[in-house]
Amino acid sequence: MMIEKFAAITAEERQAENEHDHTIKVCVAAGCLSSQSNEVLTALKNGLGEHRGCHVKGVGCMGLCSQGPLVAVATKTNATPQTVMYQNVKAEDATEIVQALGKEPVARLALNTDVPFFQRQTKIVLENCGAIDPERIEEYIAAGGYQGLLTTLTESSPSEVIDEIVRSGLRGRGGGGYPTGLKWTTVAKMDGPGKYVICNADEGDPGAFMDRSVLESDPHRVLEGMAIAGYAVGASEGYIYVRGEYPLAVERLKIAIRQANRLGVLGSKVCGTTFDFNVHIRLGAGAFVCGEETALIASIEGKRGTPRPRPPYPAEHGLWGKPTLINNVETFANVPAIIRKGGAWYATIGTAKSKGTKVFALAGSIQNTGLIEVPMGMSLSEIIHEIGGVPIGKCKAVQTGGPSGGCIPAAYFDTPVDYESLKALGSIMGSGGMIIMDESSSMVDVARYFMEFCMSESCGKCVTCRVGTVHMYNLLDKIYQGKAWRRDLNTLEKLCDLVMNTSLCGLGQTAPNPVLSTLRYFRHEYLNKLLDGAEDGRMATAATTQPLEARP
Amino acid sequence: MVSTTRKLEPPSDDKRWNIVVGTMRRNGFARHALIETLHTVQESFGFLDEEALNFVAQSLRVPLSQVYGVSTFYHRFSLKPAGKHTCVACTGTACYIKGAPQLLAAIAEKHNINPNETTADGSLSLLTARCVGSCGLGPVAVVDGAVVGKLTPDDLLARLQEVMDHHDD
Q1: Inter-chain contact A207–B93, Cβ cutoff 8 Å?
Q2: What interface predicted TM-score (ipTM) does this complex get?
Q3: Which domains are delineated in chain A?
């Protein structure tokens, strides 16, 4: 019986843990690995020597990627168990860290965790990140993993599972914000057999690395979410479409799938029931458009990743023409927690329309670059100034949503972060990348950068996107070089409207967003670059300091 | 799908073809294994040449035009052989803001190559990637498979010189 197996594994893990007074955790996610955290891990293991009461292990992302390699030392000899974190650790520091065990921490390396970056977060998706070894299924199970799947399979009917997801109010974390429960209901209603579940891990937005971190730090959580989804909608095959740029995430997923199959929590007769669920990995090959669901499906089928018109939606006609449920990594990663703790619990977090938490990747001109998870509805100011550590006044704008999103100026930082509020500002939630820009960034350059991105990533299927993005890029370049006139700006605005309304898929429809949002809030920067930009027709030199109001 | 297991002989007795055939066999020579197979060719040979495209097309019974279409559509497949060393500069948003264009300019000046080009002596290829996911360390480059972060143009040039000298010894 699976339940006894789980209990045995958990007991074994607990016992192993109790044998040690100290546990040293070294981050081995991609960020810290590129600062040689594997050398730190080896040095610490070797440095232990005679020290019997300590255990060293590699764990997933601890969040503060800019200060890596990060090491956490958990001690339970004292009356209250405590954790000390070290930053910028090098292999040479290993001996010093081992010597300090049970004594005063190494002050030189210590990282103060009593700061908003650590205190203001609410971790659901990331609860195991930085705590468990991603390459051991036992640790995931000891942390309560796969229990949700087991109770689902043995105690709930598929419709009860869907009801729970509907109750939680979870919305698609890929950026669109489509209610997850509704999507599951639609797929479940379709006639089987031969349905599919797809996990979209083609995190193409430049500046976003949430999905990569989740896959590298806690891959089993995503697999469990997919299996629960498969049971709910009646699918027995699952695909994870991962970017080829993430070799470590692919490697850890492969290990996780192998372990899960061996233990019997995936594969045929999951947990001893009649439910089968096999998960396959498909590697992306570097095409941003494959994040669009129909393009992604074409890519899994071995074709060029070009989107097709919807409807029919993948829920009716997806992979190989079968009903297909397609959700993002973070959406699936929320599912086990919802099943374990209940939809009602999840719905207490967040705002009226956007429930739960959201993982954001902070990058750009910011002190604390890294990964955070905060409740929906937290203001941009709290995220950027308090958690991110950017002094007030030092930040010009934040870019959310990648090439499909927009730039939000500092004046609007009181806005709560939820799907609707960001949309009202002309940006989108997106998958969760937040790029902070200071005064040195020219907004025209930022718009040009994203247009260059969309231009080269356009798949070429529909003409407005293929040709429109090139023209918009040329106009933006002309403006940036200071060679454009007012009429060029008018043409640019007309093109934005045209491309937005007539493109086939999300890539084209949202490609003008960075231009429109920068025009809306930083129009003066465009005007200053025009040959006839000033209102009175003279050559513009003096900057208009106040942002102009939204365009009519 | 009826699969006739008509086994084709690889173009040469290069051992790497066995890996490619292995991938196709694991997928039952199904047509949808095209991208997986091309990944294997790219990994094993470093690029896709005409011989490889023909072989994959015939083995999977996919029109050569479609194989060519797929290989040119996705950025990770290259139809030209790469240099002895590769430098992939990240041009994602965070790296761009932190100075990726300066890195590219420095390489262009020192080695006289632009993105997707290889030096005349075949020692170095410069590629770009749309975000390698290490945004916290921007600007980032991947030099011969190893991610190096928080780079200045001088750091990167020094690092490149290091790997190139090391190999030539």
Answers
A1: yes
A2: 0.87
A3: 17-111 (3.40.30.10), 144-347 (3.40.50.11540), 357-437 (3.10.20.600), 443-550 (1.20.1440.230)
